[in-house]
Design a protein that fits this description.
- By secondary structure, the protein is of the alpha/beta class.
- It has 2 domains: 3-138, Rossmann fold (3-Layer(aba) Sandwich), CATH 3.40.50; 163-345, Nucleotide cyclase, GGDEF domain (Alpha-Beta Plaits).
- Helix content is 42%, strand content 28%.
- It has 13 helices and 13 strands.
- Strands 6, 7, 8, 9, 10, 11, 12 and 13 form an 8-stranded mixed β-sheet that branches. A 5-stranded parallel β-sheet has the order 2-1-3-4-5, with helices on both faces.
- A hairpin with a 4-residue loop joins strand 9 and strand 10 (284-290).
- Helix 3 packs parallel to helix 4 (66-76) and helix 10 (190-210) crosses helix 11.
- The radius of gyration is 28 Å and the shape is elongated.
- The protein starts with a strand and ends with a strand.
- 31% of the residues are buried.
Length: 347
């Protein structure tokens, strides 16, 4: 398979030297080189050649230097790795380049044997990265644990660059708890508990996905779901109403287990921080949402009675013309200084 390499350098003789030194690999279609005279030109060439694997870049170039180019490249194309080429005495700039994401460096005058070894190492690293990403994408086991929207995100070019990035978005969060299941699980066999819990979660998941929601996580016998985009609050409420209806209409249990499930739900809407939360250094990240809006939704669920869907006054004002609600009144929520005015969604 041919590897496409971009060379950004304003020295005209470097292009000729590279073509001479690598003529065999070029002839055998192992390497294809594209040449740019500065960072700006290199970015334009990359737009037309999105299959470039690695970049060889000088640091001192007119119009856009190598350090600026490296920063822009890391933002736009994190899978492309860069080898910096600069004068031996330019170690301060080389150090800066490495801190900005350069994979390796070689010094001028160029030792082409060293350059080829460095290129091969860089190409191998990129291949390993892409193979790992492909394996994750194609892993059917992963699809059982990770929401499809997250998998779609992982397939995008921005995935690696966004591992620890976050954004503030407006969303609605729903917590759906199976009432009394913890005490029930203490009396039954683990196999029976897991099978029954999975049945309930499967039912909930279908209703959440039908409303274009994302299952953020399963927490014991509770589900946390996130809804973004147009009418996210309306869709969150519709999903919860549907879940309550489906749970209420489940057939009576057979056998020894006589558990009759009921759900208690809390929904809240507002700004949340969305992104990968955790430790990148140990590669333990959770793609989730956090913020006060999430906390309020969870605490509304914690005070909801079986079959109740509770929303805050802020949420009620947004949906009062679309849903039939009953005023509950002021409720004290954990870690909230002032009581929160609460409504129950009836239908």
């Amino acid at each position: 398979m041919m590897v496409k390499i971009l060379v950004a350098d304003d020295e005209e003789d470097l292009e000729m030297l590279i073509k001479q030194k690598f003529r065999k690999k070029i002839r055998e279609q192992q390497y294809e080189f594209i040449f740019a005279i500065n960072g700006k030109d290199a970015l334009e060439k990359l737009k037309k050649n999105d299959d470039v694997v690695i970049v060889l870049s000088d640091i001192n170039m007119p119009e856009m230097d190598g350090l600026t180019f490296l920063t822009k490249l890391s933002e736009s194309s994190p899978l492309i790795k860069t080898v910096m080429v600069s004068a031996y005495g330019d170690m301060d700039n080389i150090r800066t380049a490495m801190n900005r994401g350069a994979f390796d460096f070689v010094t001028k005058p160029v030792n082409f044997e060293d350059l080829e070894l460095t290129m091969e190492k860089t190409i191998k690293h990129v291949k390993q990265m892409k193979d790992t990403l492909k394996a994750i994408q194609e892993n059917n086991i992963l699809r059982m644990y990770v929401d499809q929207n997250v998998l779609n995100f992982m397939g995008g070019r921005e995935y690696l660059a966004s591992l620890t990035a976050s954004e503030t978005v407006e969303a609605s969060i729903a917590f759906i708890d199976i009432c009394g299941f913890t005490s029930f699980s203490e009396k039954e066999s683990p196999d029976q508990v897991v099978n029954l819990l999975n049945q309930y979660f499967d039912l909930m998941a279908k209703e959440i996905i039908d409303q274009n929601g994302v299952i953020d996580k399963f927490i014991g016998d509770c589900v946390m779901a996130v809804f973004k985009g147009p009418y996210h609050l309306d869709r969150a409420i519709d999903a919860c109403l549907s879940i309550r209806n489906k749970i209420d209409n489940l057939p009576a249990p057979s056998g020894k287990a006589k558990f009759l499930p009921k759900v208690a739900m809390g929904i809240n809407t507002g700004d949340v921080i969305s992104g990968n939360i955790g430790s990148a250094s140990i590669r333990r990240l959770d793609y989730t949402v956090i913020g006060d809006s999430v906390n309020v939704a969870q605490r509304l669920q914690s005070v909801a009675e079986p079959n109740q869907i509770l929303i805050s006054n802020t949420s009620y004002q947004k949906v009062k013309e679309s849903f039939n609600c009953r005023q509950v009144g002021e409720v004290s929520l954990k870690h909230k200084v002032a009581p929160v005015f609460v409504y129950e969604v009836l239908d």
